[in-house]
Amino acid sequence: TQLITAAEGAVGDDGKIRFEIKPGYEAIITTKQFNQLSEGFLELKSLGYQDSIKKVKKITIVQGNDRLAHIDTKTFELTLDIDVFKSQALLIMEAEHELLHIFAKSIGKRAPPAIEELTILYQEARRFLSFTPAQQEEVIQVLKDDNDIDDQQFYQVLLKVQEDGLGKIQDELINYLKRVYPQVSQEGLSDYLQENSLAGLKKELTSLW
Hints:
By secondary structure, the chain is α+β, with helices and mostly antiparallel strands. Helices cover about 55% and strands about 15% of the residues. It contains 8 helices and 5 strands. The protein has helices at about 30-55, 90-105, 115-130, 135-145, 155-165, 170-180, 185-195, 200-209; strands at about 1-10, 15-20, 60, 70, 75-80. Strands 2-1-3-5-4 form a 5-stranded mixed beta sheet. Strand 4 (about 70) and strand 5 (about 75-80) form a beta hairpin. It is globular, with a radius of gyration of 17 Å. The protein starts with a strand and ends with a helix. Mean pLDDT is about 80; it is low at about 1-10 and about 205-209.
């Protein structure tokens, strides 16, 4: 169910969101949630995503979506499921993930889709580790509590990150990626990672993002 659609030029320079609520859903979308969204974009802007944020033309909040967030890199429409607002840290993780897809498109030469996704997932795990222990537990709990919003169990990757750090999550990331995108070839990823270790991915993130 579509709840709100933000207007053209959805995110202002001040990080505030311009929007229209679909009639009948006024009681579902709260001021707190719009403040969460604005604060999240302001934080991401401070992390260097201002150019990608400016490209977002439309924000749609939906209910019962099959993923927490998605960006259409042709129309630059960002779709968020209302469940992402259950945790501010999760909202930042998901929004950053989609902004990185915008950034990847902006640099012209894009990696194969599976590799782009793998690299962005690595950054998502890195962002997770930047949160306080309480925020990390909140993110994991939100994902665990509702199988509909994490049916491929990304929280298992995050638990692995908590336990072992970033250096040992390669297999978890690949397994997750294969669950989400069954068409991804294990061999293709293995060949890539043989030449580009996670240390290489970390270097790539540092140099590009």
